[in-house]
Amino acid sequence: MLSASTKLPISPASGAAARRFVMERLDEWGYQQSYDDILIVAAELVSNAVRHGVAPVLLRLATQDGCLHLEVADGSSEEPVRHERPGVDGGFGLMLIERLCTRWGVEHVGNGKYVWCDCPLSRSAEAAPDAEPA
Residue ranges of the Histidine kinase/HSP90-like ATPase domain (predicted)? Predict the structure, then answer.
């Protein structure tokens, strides 16, 4: 299992920083696929934490069972709300997460929470450090 984490500020720039962090880690770990969906998911989770949460915001990544497990923690215990009818001011986030990820959830820790999701990954055999030769 590979893992990494980073703290992000409560800032409009944090979504872009999350995308950059995820892209750099996946490149570093040898993933060759297009992972635009994962970048959207990471930016959405972080943007929600920035908009509705409380500092600090922490983004954690881990590879497990062919998925990238993403967690975004913040200091608010308030659960995210899935809007049935998103509008001009937003509400599309959890709908995106549901469509792009295999599963997602919320875990409460102390005074805060983390929202997590699993996104499918594939890695080319030549890039996998522990892959068996063909």
Answer: 11-115
pTM: 0.83
Is 68 in a helix, a strand, or coil? strand
Residue 72 CA to residue 94 CA, distance in Å, equals 13
DSSP annotation of 79 reads P
Domain 3-120: give its CATH code. 3.30.565.10
Burial class (CB in 10 A: 0-12, 13-18, 19+), 48: buried
Q: Report the chain (134 residues): mean pLDDT per 10 consecutive residues.
A: 95 94 94 88 93 92 93 92 65 82 94 94 49 34
